Each structure stands twice: as C-alpha cells, then as structure tokens.
Amino acid sequence: MNMSSRWWLVLLLGAINAKSAFAAVVDKVYHPYVLANERELEWRFTSRQNDEANVLSQRIAYGHAISDVVSLEGYLVFDRDQSDDFGLQGYQLETRWMLTEQGQYWADWGMLFEVEKEHQQDNWEATVGLLFEKEFIHTSLTLNMLMNYHWGNGISSEVEPEFRLKYRYRWIPELQPAIELYTGEDFIGLGPAFMGVHRYEGSKQLKWELGFIAGLNGDSKDHTLRFSLEWEF
Fold it and tell me: What's the pTM value of the predicted model, to 2 decimals?
C-alpha cells in the first residue's frame, strides 16, 4: 500500500469512527465535478421520522459555475413548524471546487465549502468537505468526508464530523441504483437509492435522486426519505 492509499485509509476510518454532538444528517452525496458554464435550479425534500419527531425539510437553490472548476449555489431552507406549515429556516451558500479533471488520475477529487445562517437567529454553521469518486467498470464509488462547525447565540460551539458514501451501478443514464451509507456519533444509516438523468438538447438535463435510509443504531425507529430534482441549463 503506497503513502497516498494509507493517508486515504486513515481519513476514512477517522471519519467513520469520529464522535459528534448530533447524528449525521441524511442529505445529498456530492460528486466532485463541475461543468463549465453550468447553471442549475435544485429542489430537495427530506422527511425524517424517529421516536422523537417527524421532521420535514425543503431546500430551493440556484447555482452557477463561475469558472471551469468552481461553482456557487445559494439555498433557501424551509422546515415544517408546529402548525404543519413550511417556514423559512435559514440561508445557505455553497461552493464546490473540482481539484482534478475527470479521469486525470486514479480517482477524482474535489472540495466542498458551505456557510449557513439560521433565519432571524444569530446561529451559524460552516462546513468543509473532501469529495472523492472512483469508477470501477460499470460502477462508481463516491465518498464525502465533512467537518461541520456550529456557533452562535444559545448554542455551544462544536465541531461535528460526517461521512457519506454512495456505491452506484451505472445501468442506464435514466436509472442508476445505488446503496448509501451515512455515519456520525451514535448514528449509522444505510439504505437503497436511485438516481437518473434525462438529457435534452444542448447542455440541458434533468437529474433526480430518491433514497430511503434506515438507522442501524438499535431498536428505535429512525428512517429518512430523501428526494431531489436538479435542472441544469
């Protein structure tokens, strides 16, 4: 095993076994790619049910590549309140940076940077992440290792690591089954996922993802349904 492989293995094991104050959030597994001149509209829906609550969340975003390797995306985050109405919960700015060209090295690498502010509250969250993808004939392995830092009024400043994994079979562009894994302190989630892309004329395409992640922490119920649509033009 060379030094690069050993370094990667250490990071992977550290992310899986790291301790954080909250369970990992089941969300999107990011790919390390940026398309030149890409523009996109995105909608995400997440429903998490456990013994304590039923949490519904939506995100609406607009993104634009500002160079061949860097893209920016802004989000409005909505959560369901006690009256079953969706209200604005926060704002998020996301940057993806493609470190290597696709197929240039043995694997493809990227970085993720996010800043989120809670609506009407001086509470913040910053995230930095390492993105990895490797193709094996007809399958792809995608890994995200993220570090989140929370601070603000009424909350404790703390660092929370997260780890996300997607192993995908590239069957046809319109339908690609996968298995996803999410980990954090006292939380391991695993389940099936599906994604696909329908291409139109030029660079226009519609992407979709659907996943059902079940918590493997014990006997208590903890599962998450996630769905997203992404229109690139």
Answer: 0.86
